Amino acid sequence: MAYYQTTIILPAHARGVHIITPYIEQTINELLPQNAEAGMVNLFLQHTSASLAINENADPDVRLDTEDWLNTIAPADQPQYRHTLEGSDDLPAHFKSMILGVSLNIPLIRGRLGLGTWQGVYLCEHRNRASGRRLVITVNI
Prior knowledge:
This protein is an alpha+beta fold.
């Protein structure tokens, strides 16, 4: 077995749910040898106020509804929150990250991400203002 690994910096995104599949696919194409057929891709986001998810990649309403749902279960500006040094969106961002998680495993099939027809990889940005996010991509073939 061989491991290939790199870290990319995703561009800064506004708070919300954003498809990042093209960044990952491009990186995998550059990282792997041409004969890579099958394996496992691990994505790990090195942050505690953003998360990763796989979901619908065609209808943007899914991303908007996901953001609305997350804001309902972890709203900002709650007086009982103690962790507010970085703003009223900081602790809710940590909650959302814990709910969704910061890593994904996706099979590599015929040298490509083994996503279903309507699946895409989301960066769920939970902060109002965030810089680029570091994403570690590890492929085991």
